[in-house]
Design a protein that fits this description.
Helix Hairpins; Heat Shock Protein 90; Beta-Lactamase; alpha+beta; 4-stranded antiparallel beta sheet; 453 residues; 5-stranded mixed beta sheet; 3 domains; 11 strands
């Protein structure tokens, strides 16, 4: 069992998932760059290695043949004509040739490349039958070739460029530069292909947060355009469905308000009695239920998202809640703990209704509540904690179901129709966030709102 993590470490899919970048542009770039770099490196290595060996061999062989010819001419010519003979050959071959009498070849190993040494040893040993010593590094810009003669050493200096192929780096630079240019063109082209996808993602995200996207236009490849047009069709259908729902509920609410208003007027004109008082309370409850239905159906439609000063908004909500509790003489307290300079793009009335609903629920079932707000990464977290009875873990998700009322001692919708938390979560999700119920450090319930900044 201990080998599990080690085996998982060598799973290719796990390694790729861990180290691959998340965004499409970077992944596409890797798909393009990796084969190009590998192929370019392999081709460069094979081509340069073969070219260097082939060209260097031919160059060294040509110089070795010239030196062997000079040695042969030196040995065949009469002593009095040797100087003139090798001088003409040296001048014709652009070589610097000198004879050093009484000298022998150095005993140290020739400081020259293996290829150069092998070529000269083979050529001079085979044609001139003479030992040779080569220095291709000591003299700046020259290759020093020494051939052992009878009682002397022939020293030949030749431009190093004639014995070793030195233009390899130029070819590498040209090939590398060409590859970089092609990669740059590919990156620009790839970026242009990715940009429409990014715009589509931004538009979908903005629409999911309830913002309007009037400037979005489909662009890019055919597949991206199809996805963009599908998004626009979906956006139109969703907007139309929301509008129809809002209009229908608004009409129902308007139709119900008329008889409710007549009932309130009739009750107000009737003599006061316990029955009239109870009936008036029922009418007020019915009116509140109608307003709650309408709020759930309307959501945040029609309101434009603007930059909201969250500190100011929370302060106003807290002040209103404190005044309401003071008017009741309940003795309940509400504390506010928010970071300075908290702003976000939101629909102010919707967010106000959401937080107010959660604060009212907390103060309805607890003696103390705390509203806090913190920035966490790219989001802002708004928490409403209380010291009330709370809700069991397995029942918390049920509290968000529309028209669902809990039967426990703590019921967030006591006296309502079961829409308060559903409306709050709908508003939060309409802003691209999430609303969760957790256990509070105060001992009760925590309503945690997470919104993107």
């Amino acid at each position: 069992m201990a080998h599990g993590p080690i085996i998982a470490l060598f799973r290719p899919r796990g390694i790729l998932r861990r180290y691959l970048p998340r965004n499409l542009f970077s992944r596409s770039l890797i798909i393009i760059v990796t084969p190009v770099v590998l192929l370019q490196g392999l081709v460069t290595y094979l081509l340069m290695e073969r070219q260097w060996q082939t060209v260097s061999f031919r160059m060294a062989r040509g110089v070795a043949s010239q030196v062997a010819m000079i040695v042969s001419a030196y040995e065949r010519a009469p002593v009095s004509e040797r100087g003139a003979s090798i001088g003409r050959l040296a001048e014709a071959g652009q070589l610097l040739v000198s004879i050093v009498p009484g000298e022998t070849l150095p005993e140290s190993e020739s400081p020259a490349g293996d290829l150069l040494r092998q070529v000269f040893v083979r050529e001079l040993s085979g044609r001139a039958k003479r030992p040779v010593w080569i220095d291709g590094e000591t003299l700046d810009g020259y290759t020093d070739i020494r051939v052992q003669l009878d009682g002397a050493v022939m020293r030949v200096l030749i431009d190093r460029k004639r014995t070793v192929f030195t233009n390899t780096h130029i070819n590498v630079v040209w090939m590398g530069g060409t590859a970089l240019l092609l990669l740059a063109i590919a990156i620009v082209f790839l970026r242009n292909q990715i940009r429409p996808i990014e715009r589509l993602a931004d538009a979908a995200e903005a629409f999911g947060k309830g913002r309007d996207v009037p400037d979005f236009r489909p662009s890019g490849a055919t597949e991206v355009r199809r996805a963009a047009f599908a998004f626009l069709d979906m956006k139109e259908r969703v907007s139309r469905a929301i509008q129809q729902r809002t209009e229908m509920l608004a009409g129902v609410s308007h139709d119900l308000r008329t008889p409710i208003t007549r009932m309130k007027l009739q009750l107000a004109m009737m003599p006061q009695s316990p029955d009239v008082t109870d009936l008036s309370a029922d009418v007020l409850e019915l009116e509140r239920m109608v307003e709650e239905y309408l709020a759930f159906a309307r959501g945040a439609s029609g309101e434009t998202a603007v930059e909201v000063d969250l500190n100011k908004l929370l302060s106003e909500i807290a002040a209103n809640a404190r005044r309401a509790q003071d008017a009741k003489g309940s003795g309940k307290t509400l504390d506010l703990d928010a970071e300075a300079e908290l702003t976000l793009q939101a629909r102010p009335n919707a967010i106000r209704r959401c937080i107010t609903n959660l604060v009212d629920n907390a103060l309805r079932h607890a003696a103390r509540a705390v509203v806090s707000a913190r920035i966490k990464g790219e989001t802002v977290e708004i928490a409403i904690d209380d010291n009330g009875p709370g809700i069991p873990d397995h029942r918390r998700e049920e509290a968000f179901r529309p028209f669902h009322r809990l039967d426990e001692g703590r019921n967030l919708e006591a006296g309502g129709v079961g829409l308060g938390l559903a409306i709050a979560r709908d508003i939060v999700r309409g802003h691209g966030g999430e609303l969760e119920l957790q256990r509070s450090e105060l001992g009760g319930l925590k309503a945690l709102i997470t919104l993107p900044i």
